[in-house]
Design a protein that fits this description.
The two termini are 35 Å apart. The strands form two sheets. The chain has a seven-stranded mixed beta sheet with strand order 7-6-5-8-9-11-10, with helices on both faces. It has a four-stranded antiparallel beta sheet with strand order 1-2-3-4, with helices on one face. The chain contains 31 helices and eleven strands. The chain is of the alpha/beta class. Strand 2 and strand 3 form a beta hairpin. Helix 1 packs antiparallel against helix 2, helix 3 packs parallel to helix 9 and helix 27 runs parallel beside helix 30.
Amino acid sequence: MLTHHKNRTLKILALTLGTTAIISQIILLREFVTVFYGNETAYALVLGSWLFWVSAGSWVFSRLTSRIKTPGWWLSVLLIVNAFLIPASVVMVRLIKVLLDIPTGQIVGMLPMAGTAFLIPAPLTFALGGFFTLLCRYGETIGETDARRATGSIYLFESVGAGVGGLAFSFILMLLLSSMSAALLLAAFNLVVLLTVIKRRHMASYRLGFFFLLALLIFVGSGADQRFDRWTRRLQWRDLHLIEVTDSVYGNLALTQRGRDFSLFENGLLSYTTREVVDSEQSVHFGMLAHPDPRQILLIGSGIGGTLEEILKYDGARIDYVDLDPKVVEISRRHLPDAFLAPVRNPRVRSFFQDARLFVKRAGELYDVVIINLSGPYTALLNRYYTVEFFDEVKRILRPGGIMTFSVPSSENYLSPEARDFLRSLHTTAGRVFDTVKVVPGDTAVFLARKTPGGLNLDPLVLMSRLNKRGIQTKYVSADYLPFRLNEWRMRDINESLSEPGQINRDSHPIAFLYDIVLWSTHVNRGFRSLIWVFKGITVYHLFLIPVILLAGGWVLSRFYPASPVHLSILVTGFSEIVFQVIVILAFQALYGYAYYKIGLIMASFMTGLALGSWTARKIIGYPRRQVERFYKQAQGAIVVYPLILPFLFVVFQNTVSTRGLTGLLASVFAFLPVIAGFLGGIQYPLAVTLVQSLKSGRTVSASAGFLYALDVLGATFGALITGVILIPLWGINAVAFFCAALNAVVLFLLLVKRFS
């Protein structure tokens, strides 16, 4: 009876651990992405930090397990610690700019990003890692003969909790609660588990948990949680008057006011500022004046800040306005004076709130001018509008002589090496598709690309004549300023400089995304630039020397440490699985553009696969040792094959992304791809514990389980930190996938030459 009660307690605590880990991870991922201006590098940095500290917590507690006589008391304490740290971590993320004294609107450098992403989740994730090992120790108290089965149950029920928690957040909590409210609910959940499962066996922690839960209920019941949430948000935007902040499918929206001007920020990046004449005019008029008779216009990106108003100055021009997020207009309508929204209601404007790439793929009309009015490829979400694939789609919907134009940050006269790499990449990418590409120099570089041969006429006298003939009234792009901006020697200098080949920006190889991050980072700290220069010297061929080194090192280790092939396989599997996760996140962003919304589903799908794999492994553990060994090697073989299929799947989904009526379904199917990787990892871990124990290493089951868990998470840490930030942008999805296959093939070979029974 006692054993049955402990078994039930063990499963409930494992479910609690999984649910707490996945929901808190998703909440913090979304919060960090908002603070870091929507840059998906935050996903990799936070995942890497998360996994590192989980590994550290698991390893530290695995060293202490033999000394811990009352794991139940430790578990009760960690439940209270978790309940405090979850909302506290959300607050700390929101205070990053306050703590680092970074003004609103200033890009956070890569090193501060990495530092805060590493430190803020540390206390919570260290506790979660220790919780897992303590659960394994608690399982040992059930009985030595059931210890391995108990470890398998922990891994299984943790994975089930994570899968269910991720799905619950994606389909329920995210739609009903703010991040802070969800964090407080999760804290209350941990305290309720403490009071119902741990009960009165540990009175001190029981009483503390009771009073903490009571205080939390009073805090929420009085509405103080909502006031606290708004206060932390206002601290994020302390330099501006925050009017409203809300989450949408595509990210966090914050509307602010300074004086009479309103600004809307999407994931921290400026979407528009009312009466910002300079940006609006140069994003519109160079392209419109370069065309002899612009009639049908496609505007991609925000039009509220003045861009639509500038286009409407051209008599007879009809505009299709495509913006990704309908909440941009909704939040603007609630607060902006009516005059700022008048252009959206103009009968010459048709508004479409959907993914512009999907719109372009399905467009049946042809356009004279396509204006991409976005913030440059600073994020993977934005980078998808500057790739060779998208430019090719835009070219298809341009009329003969049609022009595509976009603007990105640059420098008035001198181009630094970082700016040159960035601009050359975009110039070469556009030049691969369009017959003529020219760049207008300035603090903002204006790119103009023409569909058919014949050149782009950017003679300032011609543009001035068209400006006057069309009766366009402007303040910045005017007859006084055009001769300076289009000065012959300045135009020749920048266009000759950018004519040297750069790297092509692709959906599967987002190099411009990396170049833009490097360029921004030089304004704050040049350390990240130096790191990238080191990696740029490493070719794909150098990358594939690593499997050779792994083979040699693994062969030597196996001579002295019989369990080393299993240890290496868990390490490499952890690395590979997180690489698969990052590939799916970035590929999903490139294909569909709303990973912010689906991040919970992507994480939950992996954990669902992990649960299914763990459940399968529990059945296999009871088989004879030789069969366990065979299943383990087969799982390793499947991990070799899986990354080879990923690039093919990416192409398949890329070709079907515009399928009418099925886009949402296909997006959800793509988000569930990690279920396969999770299934394979879920099988491997419990079987690895069994194989290591069969070698009579002298370790307890909980110590072996904790050490293998630490290796698994340590491998994932390295994978998360370098994949999204460096590997995929520098070498592309295909090369990284093949690299993972090569690493796992080496491990498979080492396992095949090793006998465990």
